[in-house]
């Protein structure tokens, strides 16, 4: 088991260093991810629910670039649970993304995940989600009086709905996991408009990994890594280290490539209720015109009848 742990840790380090060297070539950033992505797993990978033995409910709200007019804000709500004594889990995810008073994206999805044991205390999980996404653009009320907007189809209001789906895979043990996903194959590309002013979408691909290092009974360290890739855009990576104190308080720090330095914490108010908060310090010129980004999360974990109720560190 010690040899396996050392091997897994080396793999994690190789992935981390290799990706760091590769993404240094990028000179721009992607749309910001959740700072507390490690506490909001179903929003990253539909296979995530297969890692958890509990009924888990998570709510998160992110308010970006406070003090900057038209800044984005995002909310997510998720619930997932294993099905009795099976290796199958189901869930639901609701998302809302808004940029000022102009653009709003919404989505509602159902998820299904299945895990398969492939060794001693190691599993491979596959997950899928499907649902509806909406894109609403209220250009006329905000730019309609501008001379540039007259008879310009780019400034027409939009209200589009479409089916959306995603998939993911995760390999995990008690101390390590690595996952690859495209949680929603269709994303709005805000930077382009094609003929007829229809909506353009691009899939996002996410690679996520974490490794739990038990230092003592009172102290555990967990490095996390999240990589995001969109065709035609620079790769974005998020490197994080969290420390768990007395099984009660997570504290950590993150760096998001060419975007921000972040501080975060999650406290377990009770064994089943956790409250999280993070603050992003901008690492770009935006730091001069805004007062940072706030993110708050609330999570419930409840036991499922007929199953063990172990602590979930991922």
Describe the structure.
β3 and β4 form a beta hairpin. The protein has a 14-stranded antiparallel β-barrel. The chain is globular and about 55 Å long. The protein has 314 residues and is mainly beta. It has 2 helices and 15 strands. Pfam families: PorP_SprF.
Produce the secondary structure layout:
Elements: H1 2-23, E1 55-63, E2 72-82, E3 88-99, E4 103-119, E5 122-137, H2 139-143, E6 158-172, E7 176-182, E8 204-211, E9 213-214, E10 219-230, E11 236-245, E12 249-256, E13 260-270, E14 273-282, E15 293-302
Antiparallel strand pairs: 1-2, 1-15, 2-3, 3-4, 4-5, 5-6, 6-7, 7-8, 8-10, 9-10, 10-11, 11-12, 12-13, 13-14, 14-15
């Amino acid at each position: 088991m010690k040899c396996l742990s050392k091997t897994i840790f080396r793999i994690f380090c190789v992935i981390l260093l290799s990706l760091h060297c590769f993404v240094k070539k990028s000179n721009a950033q992607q749309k910001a991810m959740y700072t507390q992505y490690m506490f909001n797993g179903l929003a990253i990978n539909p296979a995530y629910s297969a890692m958890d033995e509990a009924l888990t409910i998570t709510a998160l709200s992110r308010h970006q670039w406070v003090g900057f007019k038209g800044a984005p804000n995002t909310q997510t709500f998720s619930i997932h649970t294993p099905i009795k004594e099976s290796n199958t889990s189901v869930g639901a995810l609701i998302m809302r993304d808004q940029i000022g008073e102009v653009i709003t994206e919404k989505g509602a999805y159902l998820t299904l995940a299945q895990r398969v044991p492939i060794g001693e205390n190691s599993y491979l999980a596959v997950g899928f989600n499907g649902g509806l996404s909406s894109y609403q653009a209220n250009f006329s009320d905000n730019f309609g009086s501008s001379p540039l907007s007259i008879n310009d189809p780019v400034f027409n209001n939009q209200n589009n709905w479409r089916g959306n789906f995603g998939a993911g895979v995760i390999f995990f043990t008690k101390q390590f996991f690595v996952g690859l996903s495209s949680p929603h194959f269709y994303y709005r590309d805000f930077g382009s408009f094609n003929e007829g002013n229809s909506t353009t979408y691009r899939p996002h691909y996410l690679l996520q990994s974490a490794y739990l290092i038990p230092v003592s009974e009172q102290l555990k360290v967990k490095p996390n890594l999240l990589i995001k890739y969109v065709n035609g855009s620079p790769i974005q990576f998020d490197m994080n280290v969290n420390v768990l104190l007395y099984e009660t308080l997570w504290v950590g720090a993150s760096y998001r490539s060419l975007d921000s330095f972040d501080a975060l914490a999650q406290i377990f108010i009770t064994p089943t209720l956790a409250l999280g908060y993070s603050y992003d310090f901008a690492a770009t010129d935006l730091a001069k015109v805004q007062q940072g980004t706030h993110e708050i999360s609330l999570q419930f974990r409840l036991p499922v009848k007929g199953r063990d109720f172990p602590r979930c560190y991922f």
